[in-house]
Amino acid sequence: MMPTCPLCASADTAFYHRDARREYHRCRRCTLVFVPPAFRLDPQAERAVYDQHENSPDDPGYRRFLSRLFEPLKARLEPGARGLDFGAGPGPTLSVMFEEAGHRMAIYDPFYAPDASVLEQSYDFITATEVVEHLFAPGKELARLASLLRPGGWLGLMTKRVTDHATFTRWHYILDPTHVSFFGEATFRWLADELGMSIEFPAADVVLLHKRPS
C-alpha cells in the first residue's frame, strides 16, 4: 500500500527512488517527493542533527545566504511590517536582519523557540528558510502559516527544488536525514492554487507567496 501524500493527502502516490538509508515516493497530484513515515527520524535524533548547526547573525556568509530571500521580500514590504520567522533554528538570523531593516519580528521553532502563542497572532509576512524540507506534515503547516497572514501578506520560503528524477538520485540535498519533503516548481504552483495565493520565484531556491488583499 502506497503512503498518503503529506502535502495534499492524496493516496495517488508512487515509488520514486531508494538509496542505502530510505525510500522516496512522489505524489501524482501535487508532485511532492517525500520520505514515508517509516524512514523519518524520531524527535531526539532530529534534534541531534540540528544541534550541529552553527548559524549565527555574526556570520557574514550566512547573512549572504539568507539575503536571497531577505532582499526580494524586503522590497515588497511596507515600513514597520510585522513578521514571523518560522523554524528559526538555534541561531536566529533572518529575524535580526528584518529587525535591522525596521520590521517587528517574532520567532518560532519547535525545538529552540517553542512559544506556540506566536502562532495565534497575525502577520504582514512570514518566512521559513530551509524549513519546508523538514516538515512531516507540510500541507497542514503551510496552510496554518497562510492563515496567519493578514490580507496582502507575504509567505517567503527558501528550499532547494526538485528538477528531475536523474538529478534527484544524485542530489546532495537528500543525504540530510532530516530532509523529508522535496518541492518542485510545479508543487509550489499547486500549493499557491490551493491556498488562493499568487506566486513568484525570485531565485532558484526562493518562493514568494502573496495573499490577496481583502
**What is the distance, rounded to the nearest whole angstrom, between the alpha carbons of the first and last residues?**
43 Å
CATH topology: Rossmann fold
Largest sheet, described in full? 6 strands, mixed
CATH arch. level architecture: 3-Layer(aba) Sandwich
Q: Strand share of the residues?
A: 25-35%
Radius of gyration: 17 Å
Quick one: CATH superfamily? Vaccinia Virus protein VP39
Name the overall outline: globular
What's the level 1 CATH class? Alpha Beta
Describe what you observe in this structure.
Helix 4 links the parallel strand 6 and strand 7. It is globular, with a radius of gyration of 17 Å. Helix content is 27%, strand content 26%. A 6-stranded mixed sheet has the order 5-4-6-7-10-9, with helices on both faces. It has one domain: Rossmann fold, CATH 3.40.50.150. The protein starts with 12 loop residues before the first strand and ends with a strand. The chain is α/β, with parallel strands linked by helices and 214 residues long. InterPro entries: SAM-dependent_MTases_sf. Pfam families: Methyltransf_23. One of its GO terms (biological process) is methylation. Keywords: Methyltransferase, Transferase. This is Methyltransferase domain-containing protein.
